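Same chain as my last thread, 551 residues:
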Amino acid sequence: MNGDTAIAKILKAEGVDWLSCFPAQSLISAAAEQGIRPILCRQERAGVNFADGFSRVNNGSKIGVFTMQAGPGAENAFGGVAQAFTDSVPILLLPGSAPTTASGIHPGFQSVDHYKGITKWSGYVNHASRIPDFMRRAFTQLKNGSKGPVLLEIPQDVQDQEFPDSDFKYEPVKVTKSQANPDDVRDLIKAILAADSPVINAGQGVLYGVATKELIEFAELSNIPVMTTLAGKSSFPENHALSLGAGANSGTLMVDHFRRKSDLIIGVGTSFTKAPFSTLMPKGTPLAQITDSPDHINKDYKIDLGCVGDVKLVLRQMIEELKRQVGDKGITKSAGVADEIKSVRDEFYKEWTPRLTSDEIPLSPYRVFNELASNVNVAETIITHDSGYPRDQLVPFWKPVTPWGYMGWGKSTQLGYGLGLAIGAKIAKPEKQVINIMGDAAFGMAGLDIETAVRSKIPILTVVLNNGVMTNYTSPRPYLEYAAKEWDLHKLGGDYTKIAEGMGAFSKKVTTPDEIAPAIREAVNANKSGQPALLEMMTKEELNVPKYWGK
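reply #2:
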């Protein structure tokens, strides 16, 4: 066998049954020969996004893989990898490379050098005999510890180099997990018992750790309300009496109410990263943190109590320690917390229901989301947003009830990212209804990969909120201000219904509120028949979003 075949055999051994790709890359054919389905994207960044969405909804237990051409292919993929890095997503990147004899010579693109800042680990295979060792290291990094993209650069001569069949030995990498120090867990439970108004802030580590069941059990035992981060949205069911919803750039009144009054915030599976799309923690409020990486402790905030370990195992330790300290019935002193949450939630919806049920023309995006939730089975749906106002408007009101029912992202905010995530999620969970919400600007960045969904028979639903502008970009710096007023620089155009139809998708333009629900049902039926769908919702420029932080 040659180097390509050795890599493909290892991918197969690690459970990889498809990869996203763009040629020219000889590994694509070698992988196909091993029974690995290649899915060709229209642009390399999108191909990375496919792998990203796949890894997410599989909790990193199955890894999304993207392989691309040396040079321009690796260059074009950079943005997608940067986004995956900021959101800590485990994906494997296998770029081609110039022959080893040309390594490091201008103007050749050396992926290892350029990608070091946006990968968890990167390696360069300089001989075919070293492929098993390098692939073992790569999958060890992908499956263990904190999450992130991993890159293995493969020179063309190494891909072609012979690898004796008799020398090929590879066993799949095992996942290793550890509990937290029992003394740290004991101290954390003592602090929780001493607090009058603790709040749990659940991050995406709960999703990757498959720890929603344990989080629910601990929340109910301790009677502590639960907010989630943007990336952690869907880690706790939002129909639960203790749910506060998500806190991101926008969020619910419930999050703000309990965040402000809290005297202890317990971060579970979150890095407590300060970012534009993360809710700030109140100054002076003690913070506790459960994380799988000691690098997260005291990273952006002072952490008063830390437990380092696998989130599922640590939550189980916390459950047992709480029972040891107070008994099997748990904490009863805050029995009225669910009623308080309901009272604040009622106040929140009293303010926002007029928008959720609005009969405005052009359409209110809130009405679109409300109709979506009423016309799909939320428990069997995976939905994701795109960058900008579609994200800020959707996050507070979509109520996922199952893990990965919502794919939240946003420590970087690349327009068009959501479409690729949706395609990857549908590959991972073909039985789910997968929905991508994007604005017209995002469609311009990524919309042609709807053709990939059509060609590859990946039936997702894309909802384009077309208001003809980049929302709020007439505002002062850093937005367009004078340039928008003088040159209409914020205005966009296009008939996305016709574009989608031309690519083979079911498509429909919706202009009035009474058309929304029937169009959704038609699109869902098209998906059930195997056809991707696009609904173009002609919406207003909606500037109002639920954002309470900083007031």
